Amino acid sequence: MNKRITRVLRLLFVFLCMNLVWYIVYLLMNHPILPSPGSVYKAMFQLEGREVLLNVGYSLLRIFEGVLLALVIGLLIGLLMGRSTLWNKLLDPVVYLTYPIPKIALLPVVMLFFGLGETSKVLMIMLILLFQIIISVRDGVKAIPENTYDVLTSIGAGTVQKFWNVTLPGALSVILSTIRISLGTAISVLFFTEIYGTEHGMGYFIMDAWLRLDYPEMYAGIMLFSLVGFVLFLLVDLLDYKFMKWRR
Questions:
Q1: How far apart are CA 194 and CA 111, in angstroms?
Q2: Residues contacting 111, CB < 8 A, separation 6+
Q3: Among 41, 22, 43, which residue's Cα sits nearest to residue 212?
Q4: Helix H or strand E segment including 71
Q5: What per-residue confidence (pLDDT) applies to 150?
Q6: Is pLDDT of 152 > 70?
Q7: Segments in 106-165 forming alpha helices (H)
Q8: Backbone dihedral angles phi then psi of residue 197, each to the nearest 5 degrees
Q9: Between the CA of residue 49 and those of 46, 53, 56, 149, what are the distances in Å?
């Protein structure tokens, strides 16, 4: 409990320091493009609750669908490559040739093939996470010593039991670490995708405020978008704490 309180206090201290720096820069610039922290927070609390929930809800749904799709496909391919030498030899060149491609550069291609709707937005998030999950899961599964399965084999455990008790816990650790690292990039890509072909989402909300020159509302949207990312990051930490207790 003391560690949690210390962590919360540390986060609050950093948050206050960031606002102090923001206020000092605001005083030095003295320009409408950078409003004061107070005016931004005031604009944030004046936003309609239904509008905020709608935009945040759409963004969260897209992130959830993209992450879930990447997890399902990445976990299956990663496990297949990690447990099968043949499949690893076949798929390894494909993964390594496609992984270095900057995924944000594929945004026009994805939109050409799948339109400006929900599908392209979800697919972009999926592409950001997919290859990192595949590589992480494959390496995580490969790192599990073969003798780890011997105990389960000796008591007559089947393939499914070995998967749930050894393979999945070994892969879950690297999956959570990969999601934690990639989440910021995925949210950034979501912002770009929400500029086009939608009237809902935090990306649309921020750009709409920018076009209306409503800078306090624009910064309020940026802070809300950041809050969404922060909550998702805490959620990954919570999953890590719940399912990775053996690491502590």
A1: 12
A2: 120, 196, 197
A3: 43
A4: helix 49-83
A5: 66
A6: no
A7: 107-114, 118-142, 150-154, 159-162
A8: 65, 30
A9: 9, 6, 10, 52
